[in-house]
## 1
Amino acid sequence: MTALDTRSGLMAPLRFPEGFRWGTATAAYQIEGAAAEDGRGPSIWDTFSRTPGKVRNGDTGDIAADHYHRVDEDVALMRRLGVTDYRFSISWSRVQPTGRGPAVRKGLDFYRRLVDTLLEAGIRPVATLYHWDLPQELETAAGGWPHRETAYRFAEYAHVMAEALGDRVATWTTLNEPWCAAFLGYGNGVHAPGRTSDVAALRAAHHLNLAHGLAARALRGVLPGSAEVSLTLNLHAIRALSQAPEDLDAARRIDAVGNRIFLDPVFHGRLPEDLVHDTAAVTDWSFVRDGDLATAAAPLDSLGINYYSPAVVAAGTSESPSPWAGAERHVRFEPAPGPRTAMDWPVDADGLHELLVRLRDELPGVPLVITENGAAYDDYADPSGNVKDPERVAYLHAHLAAVHRALADGADVRGYFLWSLLDNFEWAYGYSKRFGIVHVDFATQRRTPKDSARWYAEVIARGGLGES
């Protein structure tokens, strides 16, 4: 976890570079609540969470962590932590209830207030335009992300937000985890809008890439010279079970549909040839029009990386339904060794180092930011009201050490955003999983910093890791 000082035999602290950004992150539908207040329209997650059987315990984001009414309290929590940056997402349907047309003033005012409160606290706002909560009207009337119109509407929305907040928000992330939006939302249906179609998933992935490029152009059109534009991808650290050719080919297939389906268009203006071949039985990709890939390759100021755990794959047949379009009959997933989180995800910080070193080599000159990293555990307040979460502290320590190791290996990592500030609505898991470093009693909305929050505050204060 720390570097060995050979002169003393002690473990020396790991310090991060001067100016390294220490942040935390949330998403609108997961924390805001106020689902029907001040003109907000329904999103696909409102509809999905109200559909019987889709979300555990029938939970919805109607109230969530009630952040809409508790902005001052939550920013004060961040200020006490000492974070330099806060990554939040904007609810598209709070600003444009149907995904098009004039903005709702009260919706814009909420985000203006949030940003102003952050700035007053000395915290840098990092705004994400899309974290999966598509306005329902765009899904119903326009067909959602499998259709081009949604990408054009997204660019208009980006223009609206740049005009509203561009004088106060320095960094804009266009999309968060488009892989999840495309393949979990349209491929195997475990996320909103709950559709199950390989071709719809592939079409959605392409139009999300297009939307990113159009939005980047819109942001820079309103904010020439001042907008820092980023994209956040949940890149997969993929390991073949063995060096057998068929297992290596399974890893290649998952890399194509899990990573390069976004990396190649966004950074190289092309589709991976092997992806097109692998998915030929699903689609001929005729929905990709001339100029689309050049648009998707709009210049970026940084790449955001969300990492939680690696994937181990082998030749075989995937469980059904699978989100991995074109790979279902060729790939099976194997359990990774080691401890697991409450999500049953393996804990493996080496995978984060692997990703960062890969990107160092494949994308030279592109600054990297860890925009999400964290873990869910079963956290409860003890009789004295304290929430002890040593497993989360160990997880975070290991992953920050992996980031430090990648920095030492030449990866240009500029910041780390811990997921998440608050316990929240965890998508299809409802309120059954807790990722926050601040415990939320959802019955009373009481916030209680966990031991991990105090630990993270110490990390930020010292600028790195001390002895574990």
## 2
Amino acid sequence: MKSPDATGNVEMTLQTLLKILNYSSDEIFVLDGEKRILYVNQTCERHYGLKPTDVIGKYNVELFEKGYWKPSIVPEVYKRKKPCYLKQQTYIGAELLTSAIPILNDAGEIELVVITSTQSQTFKMIKAKETGDELKTTHVEGETEQFITNSGKINRILTFCEKVAPTDSTILIQGESGTGKGVLAHYIHRISKRKSGPFLTINCAAIPEELLESELFGYSKGAFTGASKSGKTGLLEAANGGTVFLDEIGEMPLALQAKLLQVIQDKQFIPVGGNEMKKVDIRIVAATNQNLIEMVNDKRFREDLFYRLNVIDIHLPPLRERKEDIIPLTYNFLNKFNQKYHENKVISEECLNILIYYSWPGNVRQLENLIERLVVISDSIISVGDLPDLITDNVKQITQLALPTSLDKALDETKRILIRRSYETYKSSRKVAKDLDISQTKASKLIREYCEDLLNERKS
């Protein structure tokens, strides 16, 4: 910024202006007459988990159709050519109070539209301070979870789930603890023809072996000492017409595995202590973090049950293999716990960078637990100093090991990151060339060099 001139006016550089806009607590979008995004400040990262570079140059409808927010204010403002106001919900859980102001040219046509969005939680906090009232918000425990993702891997899994959900095929979801296997199972149920039926979960590792059978299959009156006189309906019968999610299926005792196999094959079973066969109409979705093939080889899991469960096999990748999900998930959990604890905490850029570098052995569950802790213990801005030593020490080791040993290696790694990110977004050499301002020939060569796995995925 330059010094004031003789009239007291200050000339501001573009760089200074952009820096000021990025410090705004409000999201600012600027669209042209064709509804293409010309500018967005860094607040969009907090609302959608997207960096400005992921947004600028795209048409507004591209992001809307991907579900990043709803409803859209854009059609109304372009139709009316007058200021419009709307309440919106983002896919990572932020509620926005949005205004769209059209800027018209001399012919009365829209030249630009300036859209600003304030997070309603922030607005409520300000209003509460002004009036002296206590802020009250509602948090619904156990509400339906959804997949928050910017990952190509996860999006391909969700597309696959859309194909198999309408069937009654048994599904086996495999992945490390905390990757979201239960969330995916619930998602499959919600888009299936059984969505109006019950979705019941049982964790095979959390219930003692002697109780698991009666929980699953129920029991008849007088089946054993201490049993209810009227008997008990089991989970399988209670889920009739819906979906049963068997979490940690690898922990199910061998004796029960045979009985479960009969349910999958014949959709019938006999309750504990009973002699009457019961029929059920259920879909089984199972999940495990164990290697079931190894367990089959070691005679700890029935081979016939494994193949019955493994009709549709889904592998959920760990969080360290989908780093692009860390930012949107972080803001999703930040919104969630800000509402739960009546807070309005924000997270610093330095803190976000450390979360991206961390390896997340506990996956999404570990990230969620960390954000809850940070919302509870931090001041208004969550900083690096609020992070546990376990995370900061681990990141120091990773970054030191990851430092390139030469300039050539550093340049090569930068090229690899840029090419992969661009190709994952645009899926064609022509668009990558335009995005990175290089020739299409060079783009094609670099894609073959750095994106072989992505090319193979597309071919398959």
## 3
Amino acid sequence: MMHKHRRTLLIGTSLVTASALLAGCSGAGETTSTASPSQGQTAATTETAHEHEATAVDAAQPRLVTTYDGGLLTLDATTLEVVDDTPLEGFNRVNAAGDGRHALVSTSQGFQLFDAGVWTEPHGDHTHSYAGDPELTETVYETEEPGHVVRHGGKTVLFGDGDGKIQIFDSASFLEGDAQPTVKEAEEPHHGVAVELPDGHLLYTLGNEEERDGAIVVDADGGEVARSEECPGVHGEAAAQGEAIALGCEDGILFFKDGTFTKTDAPDSYGRIGNQAGSEQSPVVLGDYKVDEDADLERPERISLTNTETGQLQLVDLGTSYSFKSLGRGPEGQALVLGTDGQLHVIDPDSGEVTESYPVVEAWEEPEDWQQPRPALYVEGDRAYVTEPASNQIHAVDLTTGEVLQSAEAPHAINEITGVTG
């Protein structure tokens, strides 16, 4: 029998203040680092040290972290039972921090650190896993209008739309309780995204409050390595096999690989790819595809598949619409799309063939307000999690068989969903 014990863990976090924003905008190709913590300028305000009780468990305990109108729900990823209900006013977005334990909640102050309460520690030739109560910590990585969170190659990068602030972390540093970022700045504030590449270079989008038109790659000193201004309306990112980073455009897709930007044009003069999903198992990037430039809300029925090795873009007609929360990738690189027909469609990324369609939820229609809940897809390993806010349900699907393994009713209509591996 496994011996369980209570473990009291002190999570210490240092007291820091937000760095002052530079007046005006940086020039082309420039980035600006903040001073080091020893100079009194760091990127977060945090709580004082607090105690966290946890129980030893016999294996990692994955959890789901979700949002609803008024708070956060933490669920056991295996049973879908509610572990914790954390009140938090306002519309909040949530992303995994990349350390297997924490999530980042986008609030009015910035990116607030949420401790999902599960983690695993190495211990000689084996590991010890622990499970405790989730907690919304007081650690906030301050920025104006927190936007995209990107996890890639052991780095987690936060982008602030309102100030162009880019905060770069070693993903594992969140486990230490006092993660401190390297801070850079985009050339001008805009709704953007940034990715740190394996060689230490930084890729980030170009734009301002009026328009967005491309991306730049800079070295550690801010020197320009590559630039492309051939991506109108640049939005979103995805990493594909071979360290290719793809960015969506209003007329196709832009990707950076082997030190060079390459543009693949859409077959339509306006063919917007704004949301993408990538996989280390495939060179093909899954994207949405919209063609009505004047639509308040377009409900597309085609998706895009772009091969970052060949530059080929193909469109697949699903016969059903979907939303920006519908895209995912399976463990072998399968392209996954949750349709408004209630089915999870599995697509071969190379051929574009729809190989399976698994019924999961009732048919639904995307709401006009993007902040309103709609069915959402989250994938972890060989399991897909699908929310159904109309009935307050959440479902776990085995991607190997298509079987709905578990369904549960939540106390609230779930909006955003992410997870931690524990």
